[in-house]
Amino acid sequence: MTVRARADGFSVTDDGPGLPADIAGSLFDGNFDADGLGLGLLIVERVVSGHGWDGQVDVENGTQFTFTGVGNAANTVQQSPVTTPANGDS
Predict the structure, then answer these.
(1) CB-based contacts of 66: which residues, under 8 Å, 6+ apart?
(2) Which of the following CATH numbers is that of domain 2-74: 3.40.630.10, 2.60.40.1120, 3.30.565.10, 3.40.50.2300?
(3) Where would you find the membrane-spanning parts of this chain (predicted)?
């Protein structure tokens, strides 16, 4: 998982197997649930909406969530990507 600052927000990328393209449009729907993903994504949607940000998901090569409208995030976030181990250990 990699987090990158952008001029207008940030992106979170997971280069693993990704999510099926047919569910991409429903990910932030309050009724969405696939293997326990629903509640976490609903919380993300509420944070994004509550701050007036915009969120998009791209599932073509892994999964990438991009959040814009955040302000000048590139000046407030460390410029190098933050990467977590593939096995989830911290």
Answers:
(1) 6, 9, 10, 11, 55, 56, 57, 58
(2) 3.30.565.10
(3) none
The region that residue 77 occupies, defined by phi over 0 for left and psi between -120 and 50 for alpha, beta otherwise, is beta
Q: Summarize pLDDT for 17-55 with one digit per residue, the tens.
A: 777 777 777 776 666 666 656 567 778 888 888 888 998
Q: Do residues 7 and 68 touch, judged by C-beta distance below 8 A?
A: no
Contacts of 32 (CB under 8 A, 6+ apart): 23, 26, 38, 41, 42
